[in-house]
UniProtKB/TrEMBL annotation:
<dbReference type="InterPro" id="IPR005561">
    <property type="entry name" value="ANTAR"/>
</dbReference>
<feature type="domain" description="ANTAR">
    <location>
        <begin position="140"/>
        <end position="195"/>
    </location>
</feature>
<dbReference type="InterPro" id="IPR035965">
    <property type="entry name" value="PAS-like_dom_sf"/>
</dbReference>
<dbReference type="Pfam" id="PF08447">
    <property type="entry name" value="PAS_3"/>
</dbReference>
<dbReference type="InterPro" id="IPR036388">
    <property type="entry name" value="WH-like_DNA-bd_sf"/>
</dbReference>
<dbReference type="GO" id="GO:0003723">
    <property type="term" value="F:RNA binding"/>
</dbReference>
<dbReference type="Pfam" id="PF03861">
    <property type="entry name" value="ANTAR"/>
</dbReference>
<dbReference type="InterPro" id="IPR000014">
    <property type="entry name" value="PAS"/>
</dbReference>
<protein>
    <submittedName>
        <fullName>PAS and ANTAR domain-containing protein</fullName>
    </submittedName>
</protein>
<dbReference type="InterPro" id="IPR013655">
    <property type="entry name" value="PAS_fold_3"/>
</dbReference>
Amino acid sequence: MATDGELSDEDAETLERVIGSGAPAGIGTFRYLFADQRWEWSPEVARMHGYEPGAVRPTTELLLSHKHPEDRDRVRALITSVEDGAPFSSSHRIIDTAGRVHHVTVLSYPLYDASGDRVGTGGYYIDLTAAVDAEQRRVIDDRLPQWVAAGAEIEQAKGALMLVYGIPGDQATRLLLWRARETGTPLRALCIRLTAELTDFARADSDLRRKFDHILLTVHERVESD
């Protein structure tokens, strides 16, 4: 396993399989914005908690009300770290509105504005209740710190695709996963190389789209040699 906050290719591939192969209802996203202390849930995260999308406005208090009693204090400390601006990872239980217990893993990454200022925290909720057995959950829990380190690298590559192609984040994620699977390249390595090659672009280049297409479709050829 990698140390000092770095993510090994093995861990990145494991995370890719969890994110890429789960059922649609098994993974969702969230954001916490510092300016107005606002939480945002994707429809999938709302359903994990037992709500229809848009039915409730998520708050810190609402999040804590759904945590398993044995996990509440630990999750409160993690939420506080998000509100203070620190990335976090957690594997814990939540109880939905019907009383069902869900085993979830939460991974976070920093959010920045166009000026490079930190404006919040975003991340993934992964519902492992049906998809992963107890031993796999233990392995995932052990590797959470390394996975968090990869979140920002993947998000940078997602942001580039969203900018160039004008697509939302979920479509950008699927596009990166497709290229990684199609070429047999670890997702983290693909994202790092893709982001690095973007620095050669001039912002006003009229051929930006064509050049980006070429990089996206050939970046896997240069991962191993770098």
